[in-house]
Design goal:
Blueprint: E1 8-12, H1 21-35, E2 39-46, E3 57-63, H2 100-121, E4 125-129, H3 133-138, E5 145-148, H4 152-172, H5 178-200, E6 203-206, H6 209-218, E7 226-228, H7 245-249, E8 268-273, H8 282-297, E9 303-308, H9 314-324, E10 329-333, H10 337-346, E11 349-351, H11 361-368, E12 373-376, H12 381-385, E13 402-404, E14 407-410, H13 415-427, H14 434-445, H15 447-462
Parallel strand pairs: 1-2, 1-4, 2-3, 4-5, 5-6, 6-7, 8-9, 8-11, 9-10, 11-12, 12-14
Antiparallel strand pairs: 13-14
Helix pairs in contact: 1-15, 2-5, 4-5, 8-9, 8-13, 11-14
Amino acid sequence: MAKQKKMVIAIVSGHQPEGAGSGVLISAQAKTYVALGYEVHMFVAYHTTNFKRIPGVIYHLVPFTGEIEPIERIPGAFPTNVMMFTSHTRSTANFWDISYTTAKDYSEHFRKFYEKDFAEINPSIIHSQHCWLTTAITTDFDYPVICTIHGTDLMGYERSAKELQAINEKLANGDNSEKLLEEKAKYEYYMNMAEKAARNSKEIWVISHQQEAKFKELFPFASDKVRLVRNGCDTSIYYNEPTDATAILENLESNVTPDKKIPMDYYKLAIFVGKFADFKRVDLVLDAAKIYEEEMAKKGLKVLTIIAGAGALDAELKAHQAEIGTKNVHFVGRVDANTVRALNNIADVFLAPSDNEPDGLVYKECMLCGNVAVGTLGGGVPDTINPENIDLTSVVETSEVYPTPYGVLVPMGDAKSLAAAAMYVFENPDKFDRTKIIEYAKANYDQMNISKEIIIPTFEKYAKED
């Protein structure tokens, strides 16, 4: 009997392998596939060859050009940085500011690398990220494709439809300028490619119930392909352990203290970790901190707030910090995963008030470390913080704060409720069984378990045979 060929898994992303949730996710997934004995190839788009690699994964770089000196000159690089849907820690380029011609050239840049490398590795299955340009391209080859929705791709499709409607209205009013026609072609192209990706993928994986409903609304012709597959975390990185707060905080640099030291005389610690994108609403963390600092100070208690991350809004957020005059909020810049774990282990609460967060790995990382997460009543966040679908109609006192055994939910865009939620956690630690939070997170968000029980069996179902 001929020996069966080992399944070759190609993970395809049109974005960077780090700096945002999709990169973190595919890295955690790839690590599990290697551990399970599969041959794993990861296709990533980046402006540098100097990035963290997972041992055992074979990387295929689609090269781009960075924006900040010193710029690495990678042979064959596209002349711009990687295009993003929203602001990103490693690129300010986006799909909305380029021309139709550039969008087409951008896609063909990916196609050139995929065509060559797919032929060489002959993947059994392609797991492509985002229902967008690169996934549409992967479906042109004779390999089965599974597509994971990350949320920003659905936002991109909706934005394209909205822009196209506005353009058609202008055209109907007699504006036939060359620029407008070019814009029309671009948005039609984006929508057509997204629809092609949805139509030609074997399955569409969504990461929350909210995403499932939105995808089916936007792509009804592919609704029968949708499957809920939760994002998982690398539990070898995110876990609870005794942690020396002083040792961690001494290694961080504050943006506001003269000596850049983080003050240690605090009563409670709140943290935010993430990219500085509009929908992450870091501005609300600042506004909430102003409120809870003052309220807790009336009781003679000092609250420390650490904001870790980076992005296009960095200067704007720090200007807002100075304008409102927070007393003990410190931006500490981008931090690595080990520091994220440490911060979650010493913090009392994690504040992440995103607008319609598609899923939010940060909440799961937080829970695995035993920290209490505060998120919003939108997107996929309630699936994580309120997994048992507990009735949230009862309001704590007069504030719109909805506690569950795993965290607290608040309305979107409401700094007062966010501050009230933080104070609720500070003042009611007995309301949260941190051991139970950790156990729940391990049972549901361990990427190895998700890979073994859901992902690999699905890959084997569709895998191409020689």
